[in-house]
């Protein structure tokens, strides 16, 4: 019997390691019987269990059928052991072989056997002719057996070569598949610069590339004590939301993979549940195999990839290699994404530090936003600023320094600081301030180039005078109170950084209560392939549609609607609205401030009405925190009236020294109900807000004395409908 284990594996690879009849070797056995006129012939191969009769003809049962000789003794094994022919006329006369099982039990007398060699030249079996009586083997008999044994060797080697070629091809295919998979991984992760993008690539590769049905991605918490699934959208069905977070010491597979850094592979659902029985009622029974792959960077587990298949899966080296490759590339991508995120956050912090906080100016509502180019360091040369010069005058500035990188941001910061200082210390016109800035830019060696607008808004007899000057910048826009949009188009002066001595011009217009001034940079609406007039028209149209949008939300809303996802330029937007004051003036002892406004029977008028209420309250000196609560309650009252009431609608505001009161009147007699809506109910929360946030609230039925009239001891006039009101105490 051969001692080389590789020889045994080679026999198994070519299908000769199991006791199964082989057609080719059966043919060789039949040839031996016919040509040598013997009763039986075999082609056997030596295996640990005995001898497999791959070819057999004329053998007694059950050998002819079962094809396994379990007790061969030394007679036939000598051929494979010595790798030499064995020819005996009568084995009973040999003192060594006469007690052999084949001779003693099976009646073998004469035998002639020649070894069969494998591809490496090892004797792994033999071709034998056997007779149950003495026989002298002629030279012709021996030559025939030798030739047929050589043919058996050739057949065995041919099969081995085919198997070798098949395995080489299979290995090449696997290697090619693995290489292509790794290349696709590299390409897929190349553009993944954020955690969301990394997760999207993991899900795509895990499902489409590896073949998993479900894929989830959990990231280690910052404190190192837990791990949290980023999203459950692609996780296996029925995964409970409460299991989204896990501690590292929990008895869960995701926790163990994160804690130990070793992958966990389960071929079946039962296999996983036997290791983690606490998950029995939490896992989908329709899911089979699962894999928990830790993602390691710098020796620390930073995430775990969870793959799940609908069917059971046995051990698969190729699949495991692909999963390992996914975890490896994910580690690099996460490390890069976190470094980029830290860089972006640092840049944002720097940008926020450069963009000063807008001042609080009575009767003005201001809001601004800055949105960096998506392909930059999240920082650039766009900026905005506002300086309250005195109680009646405020300076507004916006600019765009050439470039959108750290260098542009540095120059922008210097120019902004200079202009801010000039606006505060010099009581000059906007054109004079731009001239001072341009001269300082050249004289101090900044040598920055860019565009800018400086505007001065000054209160004059119930309205505001706007004086502005532009240094090559896009024109300001004014959203009038009636919803129209006016473009303040003038001939722009020379941009900054070209000729410091260039003459600059002031321009004047008037803003009335309810009007909104919009200053912006060209990245807001400029598009490739369009003329300035085309993208300005697009901006004007969008601004007109947003006429009922609160000032605080206007800049951000414009950026979301007009700037594309692949934003190529920085954007800065500054909006300034002149508030509408209370018609009766601010409250005084013994005389409350009152205001009334009719509403159109449409939800589109709810936004403007809410802004009107805020204006009245601001002009009466109501502080901002309290106004936020009023805006919430006002929105609910207005919306409920338009949705469930009957026209006409009227909003009233009353503010005295102790309290404020907002009422919404309609012609319906239906009373609002205090309900307890479920999570899935769309509405029903407005009255709850009134109940919880208002100091007092109620409903006055028209035609009956109102609460105020009852306190005064007067009878009310008969009217139809109702007024839903609420009050908040000012102190």
TrEMBL record:
Q: Which domain of life is it from?
A: Bacteria
Q: Name one Pfam family in it.
A: SpoIIE
Q: Which residues form a coiled coil?
A: none
Q: Report the protein name in the record.
A: SpoIIE family protein phosphatase
What sequence ranges are listed for the domain GAF? 20-166, 193-344
Entry annotated with the keyword Hydrolase: yes
Residue ranges constituting the PPM-type phosphatase domain according to the UniProt record: 361-578
Q: What InterPro entries does its record include?
A: Bact_Sigma-Reg (IPR052016), GAF (IPR003018), GAF-like_dom_sf (IPR029016), HATPase_C_sf (IPR036890), HATPase_dom (IPR003594), PPM-type-like_dom_sf (IPR036457), PPM-type_phosphatase-like_dom (IPR001932)
| Chain segments carrying region Disordered | 700-719
Which Gene3D superfamilies would you find in this protein's record? 3.30.450.40, Histidine kinase-like ATPase, C-terminal domain, PPM-type phosphatase domain
Which keywords fit this entry according to its UniProt record?
Hydrolase
Q: Which PANTHER family match?
A: STAGE II SPORULATION PROTEIN E, STAGE II SPORULATION PROTEIN E-RELATED
Q: Which CDD domains match?
A: HATPase_RsbW-like (cd16936)
């Amino acid at each position: 019997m051969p001692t080389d284990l590789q020889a045994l594996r080679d026999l198994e690879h070519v299908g000769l390691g199991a006791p199964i009849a082989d057609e080719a070797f059966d043919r060789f056995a039949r040839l031996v019987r016919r040509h040598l006129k013997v009763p039986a012939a075999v082609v056997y191969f030596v295996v640990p269990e005995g001898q497999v009769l791959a070819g057999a003809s004329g053998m007694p049962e059950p050998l002819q059928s079962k094809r396994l000789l379990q007790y061969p003794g030394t007679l036939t094994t000598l051929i494979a052991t010595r790798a030499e022919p064995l020819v005996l006329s009568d084995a009973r006369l040999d003192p060594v072989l006469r007690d052999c099982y084949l001779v003693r039990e099976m009646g073998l007398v004469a035998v002639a056997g020649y070894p069969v060699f494998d591809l490496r030249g090892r004797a792994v079996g033999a071709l034998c002719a056997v007779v149950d009586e003495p026989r002298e083997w002629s030279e012709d008999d021996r030559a025939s057996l030798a030739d047929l044994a050589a043919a058996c060797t050739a057949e065995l080697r041919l099969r081995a070569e085919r198997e070798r070629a098949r395995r080489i091809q299979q290995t090449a295919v696997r290697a090619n598949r693995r290489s292509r998979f790794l290349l696709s991984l590299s390409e897929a992760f190349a553009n993944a610069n954020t955690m969301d993008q990394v997760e999207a690539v993991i899900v795509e590769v895990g499902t489409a590339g590896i073949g998993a049905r479900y894929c989830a991605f959990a990231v280690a918490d910052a404190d190192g004590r837990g791990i949290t699934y980023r999203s459950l959208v692609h996780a296996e069905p029925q995964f409970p939301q409460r299991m989204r977070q896990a501690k590292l010491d929990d008895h869960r597979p995701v926790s163990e993979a994160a804690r130990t850094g070793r992958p966990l592979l389960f071929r079946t659902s039962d296999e996983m549940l036997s290791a983690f029985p606490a998950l029995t009622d939490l896992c989908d029974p329709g899911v089979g195999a699962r894999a928990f792959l830790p993602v390691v960077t710098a020796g620390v587990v930073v995430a775990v990839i969870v793959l799940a298949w609908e069917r059971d899966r046995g051990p698969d080296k190729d699949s495991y290699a692909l999963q390992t490759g996914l975890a490896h590339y994910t580690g690099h991508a996460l490390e890069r994404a976190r470094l980029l995120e830290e860089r972006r956050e640092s840049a944002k912090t720097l940008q926020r530090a450069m963009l000063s906080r807008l001042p609080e100016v009575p009767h003005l509502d201001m809001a601004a936003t800055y949105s960096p180019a998506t392909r930059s360091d999240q920082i650039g040369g766009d900026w905005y600023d506002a300086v309250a010069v005195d109680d009646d005058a405020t300076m507004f500035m916006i600019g765009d320094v050439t470039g959108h990188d750290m260098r542009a941001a540095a120059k922008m910061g210097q120019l902004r600081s200079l202009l801010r200082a000039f606006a505060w210390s010099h009581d000059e016109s906007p054109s004079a301030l731009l001239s001072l800035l341009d001269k300082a830019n050249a004289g101090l060696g900044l040598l920055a180039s860019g565009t800018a607008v400086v505007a001065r808004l000054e209160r004059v007899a119930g309205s505001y005078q706007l004086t502005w000057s532009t240094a090559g910048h896009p024109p300001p826009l004014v959203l009038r109170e009636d919803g129209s949009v006016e473009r303040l188009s003038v001939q722009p002066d020379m941009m900054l950084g070209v000729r410091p001595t260039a003459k600059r011009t002031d321009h004047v217009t008037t803003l009335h209560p309810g009007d909104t001034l919009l200053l912006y940079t060209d990245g807001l609406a400029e598009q490739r392939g369009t003329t300035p007039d085309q993208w300005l028209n697009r901006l004007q149209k969008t601004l007109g549609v947003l006429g009922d949008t609160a000032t605080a939300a206007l800049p951000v809303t414009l950026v979301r609607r007009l700037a594309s996802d692949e934003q190529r330029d920085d954007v800065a937007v500054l909006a300034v609205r002149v508030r509408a004051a209370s018609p009766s003036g601010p409250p005084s002892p013994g005389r409350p401030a009152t205001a009334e406004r009719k509403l159109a029977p449409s939800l589109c008028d709810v936004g403007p009405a809410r802004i009107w209420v805020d204006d009245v309250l601001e002009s009466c000196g109501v502080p901002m925190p309290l106004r936020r609560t009023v805006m919430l309650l006002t929105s609910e009252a207005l919306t409920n009236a338009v949705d469930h009431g009957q026209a006409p609608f009227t909003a009233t505001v009353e503010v005295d020294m102790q309290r404020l009161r907002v009422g919404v009147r309609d012609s319906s007699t239906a009373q609002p109900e205090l309900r307890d809506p479920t999570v899935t109910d769309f509405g029903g929360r407005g009255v709850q807000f009134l109940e919880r946030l208002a100091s007092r609230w109620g409903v006055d039925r028209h035609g009956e004395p109102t609460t105020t009239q009852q306190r005064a001891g007067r009878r009310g006039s008969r009217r139809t409908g109702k007024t839903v009101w609420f009050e908040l105490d000012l102190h």
